[in-house]
Give the backbone structure.
Amino acid sequence: MVMKRNYFVFLQALLLTVVVFIIGFYIGMSVEAKRTVEINDYYTQSEISLVDILALNNLVGSGVVSCSELTESNKELLNRLYDEARTLIQYEDSGKLTNSLKILHKKYDILRTYLWINSIQIKEECGEKFSTIVYLYEYNQKDLVEKAKQSVWSKLLLEIKNENEDVLLIPIAMDSNLSSLNSLLRNYGIEGSLAVIVNEETIFYEIPEKKEIIDLLK
């Protein structure tokens, strides 16, 4: 009789465990889906803004739109993308890295690569003076030492951005396998898994004193 009672107690505990697991699984899926929808909404808005900038690019020189207006639009979108990327990283750090989040991250890398190219063109064609810091890193970095180095770089560059509001910080994953980005990397002779380019002129592979970067800003 006692053995029978113990069997039913065990069965109840097992069923309860299964139910809790299933509920937890669906809650996790729901939270993940909500996060993905939220980031997708951000990305859609950014895509709309990008198309708007493309239209502005075509109007520059016609007298309808000024270079300063194009510059401000480019800056605004780059800053927004940076903030959204930080939100995406928080989601990635808080749970399992799903394929949908990886794809979203790659989409943002495409946008940031285009806006980096656009920033270069604005400087050349309009003579606008603003500073860009392009932070090139490996998204799928596994080496713990290199990941720690990337973390130090991220904190240093964020400090510089917060202290210099006109600086555009453009983080892009080097291992996104984007043709446009790979072409730029070859043009700058970038090698290795991490590099920082300041104003398209100075390339850092190792972490310098903060002042060394600040002195290069316009």
